[in-house]
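Q: Sequence in, structure out?
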Amino acid sequence: MRGKGGKALVSLLLGVILALGSLWPGWASELDERKKELDKVNQLIQWRKQQISETERKERSILQELEGLDRDINRTEQDLQTLNANLATLRGAISTAEQELQKATADLQARTEILHQRLRDIYTEGNVSYLEVLLQAASLSDFLTRFDLMRRIAEQDVNLMKELAAERDLIEKRKKDLEARQKELVLLQERMQVKRTYLAARSKERKAVLGKLESQRDACERALDELEATSRRLTRIIQQLQAEHPSLRKGTGHFIWPAPGYRTITS
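A: Exactly. Output:
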């Protein structure tokens, strides 16, 4: 009986060994495939992390650029406000100068009329020369009086005409200077407006790029989460295979016999 029982046990063990031997290549192949998959997944994880890092670097760069653009836009807006205020003041000064010029011109015309009237009063005979007026003097005293009076009138008239002409020329020059300054400010204003338009367009374009980068980063982070979940799943599978088949941990490629107590086979 013992002989028959031993033979049966040995036959059972041999059957188990043969069965395990036929299954072992499948387990080893699955483990290798899983490890290869894990390696690929881990490589993809590193690649995705590099993508995220590079995208974040680009985002920081664009954010710094946007901060600079915002500062430039604010300065340009302030400059435009100052220019608009200066132009308004300048236009007011030009308007005042035009009014003063009109008044000075009117005063000059009025005083010229007064001078002409005075001369007509003096020359009652029409176009009478100074010499004729002097020759009409009744005496030497009258002659000297007339001469002194005509000299004073002539001097006053000449001085008055010079003052009026100088005042008018001064106002006209100031008006031209103000108009020239206005042209400069208008040109500067136009350039500022062009600059503001460019900065606004540049800011809009960089914000669009930033939005795309953020979307790319979000997509990469989602992909990274999926890859990391896959990596954890593959790691658990590999650990499970190695736990169920300890001989696979070494990866020797040889069949491992069962417990040492059954090494001696009698039949």
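The longest helix spans residues 2-122.
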